[in-house]
Amino acid sequence: MSNEYIVDTTIPNRIEKFFATFLKHGKGTHAGKPFVLLPWQKEIITSLYGTYKKDGGRRYRNGLILIPRKNGKTTLCAGLCLYELLFGETNGEIYAVANSRDQARIIFGIASDMVATSKSLSKIVKVYKNALYNPKNRSTFRVLSRDANTALGLNASFVIFDELLAAPDDGLYNSMVTSMGARKEPLMLSISTAGFSKASFLYQLVEHGERINSGIINDDTFYAKLYGLKDDDDWTKEETWYKCNPSLGQTIGIEFFRTEFNRAKEFPRFENAFKTLYLNAWIDHEKSWIGDTQWMECGKDNDISQFKGETCYAGLDLSSTTDLTALSLCFYKEDKYYIFCYAFCPSDNIKMRSRKDKVPYELWEKQGHLISTPGNATDYEYIINLLTTLSKDYNIEGICIDRWNSSYLSTKLMDNGFNVIAFGQGFASMASPVRAMERLVLSKGIVHNNNPVLRWCMSNVILKMDAAGNAKADKAKSRERIDLVVASLMALEECSKHNYASGTGEVSWI
Fold it and tell me: Are 31 and 165 found together in one domain?
């Protein structure tokens, strides 16, 4: 360290004592226990609060903690917000900031719970729906999100920017930095996990921190603590897991990691997910979702006629100008889910699509796996007629259909007596069936009838992940058509809501 700075552990020791005396963990194996700082947390606090310039001013004004999930970074920051509320600047403005209000409220919620479980803090801190207030020093802790313009006029003294990975740009971040300009000892701390895009603003900040830590550039006001996988690390070794996760063995059990690692070996896309979410590696490409070997092990030459009189749920994925239109039926029987698919393509386009997609559309049509509809656009009346015919042999309880651009067909289906269920294509709707499909394939709890069009679609799927690790099949990123998979995911999700694994009382994959 430069001779220009001194280390004084008086305040870090005070913070450590504050955590252990007044704060308790709210979740996990440590729930209800005093918040005793782990070594890595002490190191960060000592750097941020114990490193000073010779004139007595705080060295660091801005910081970044990049650390994998489940290590307790959010809980640590909630405790720091409370410390600043009680012992920070007079008339302090403390903010938990995130791209979404729900994300920002996570830290606020943890801090509120910490106050509620402390008799001493409950006597001092006033808890409101959207704020914590300390009347003794007139400081307030609030939540802030998304629109950078909302930061105008603020006079922030302490800021936590949670999951910076989700920020689409640097607008809100820069607004919060400038809002601290009038404060004597401000501090802004960004926390996040790594992600799949090196084009993100967070990655730019990570690179800045790496250059500072390696001595390439000099920025004495910026602190970067970056945990994660390096190029020469072996991601399959447990010692690497411990290096990347300083709370492993403390707040995270090693068995959890072993389970996730084994899943990563089964599915190609989980290798990247494991590296990114649990080892904090930056991966700017994603692998295929479910491997062909695993998928075909779930295949069986079933005929749908075996399910006459049975209840099923349908998923319907409508075509754009180039996609297939897909219909999937999902049955549940004897603790397994059975998938049967129908693919539709305008007859005028079959030859062209065979050349363009480099797959045998014409052969699939002859084999009965691809249904041609008259003309050069999908004939929705043909689909309605097929569903009407199927409904005579099978009890189709509901048809899931994408909310977007489906009003005409939805109306026609309802006019024909079908129960139509609007189904979104975002993370909120698709994350659950994606997780379900993965677990059912692993457990052989799903059975398909070796449909080659569905097999091809499954081989094309690339998943898109959000900052929380939720995943959805992404048509824009996937190699070719994935329509039959999307239809199957919708049908599976709705079917699962009404069918449970025997004796568990829970949905079978939970």
Answer: yes
Domain termination residue (choose one: 264, 284, 304): 284
The terminus-to-terminus CA distance of the chain in angstroms comes to 50
d(CA 58, CA 52): 5
- The half-sphere exposure of 238 on its side-chain side, counting CA atoms within 13 A, is 10
Q: What is the DSSP letter of 217?
A: S
Span 299-304, average pLDDT? 93
Q: Is residue 328 part of a domain?
A: yes
Higher pLDDT, 413 or 403: 413
pLDDT at 150 over 70: no
| Domain-located, residue 502 | no
Domain shared by 274 and 407, yes or no: no
pLDDT at position 95 is 95
Work out the percent of the chain whose per-residue pLDDT is above 90: 54
Contact 276, 195 (CB under 8 A): yes
Token pair for 480: 């070719």
Cβ proximity of 21 and 34 under 8 Å: yes
In a domain, 344, yes or no: yes
User: Would you state the structure tokens that stand for residue 102, as one six-digit string?
Assistant: 């729900």
**Which domain range does residue 17 map to?**
5-227
Please report the sign of the dihedral spanned by the C-alpha atoms of residue 364, residue 366, residue 367, residue 371: positive
> Does some domain include residue 504?
no
For residues 266 and 396, membership in a common domain is answered with: no
Spatial separation of the C-alpha atoms in residues 31 and 72, rounded to whole Å = 13
β-strand 370-373 against 131-134: which pairing, if any?
unpaired
Query: Do 337 and 406 share a domain, yes or no?
Result: yes
Average pLDDT over residues 363-379: 85
Contact status, residue 347 vs residue 510, Cβ threshold 8 Å:
no
Strand partners, 317: 326
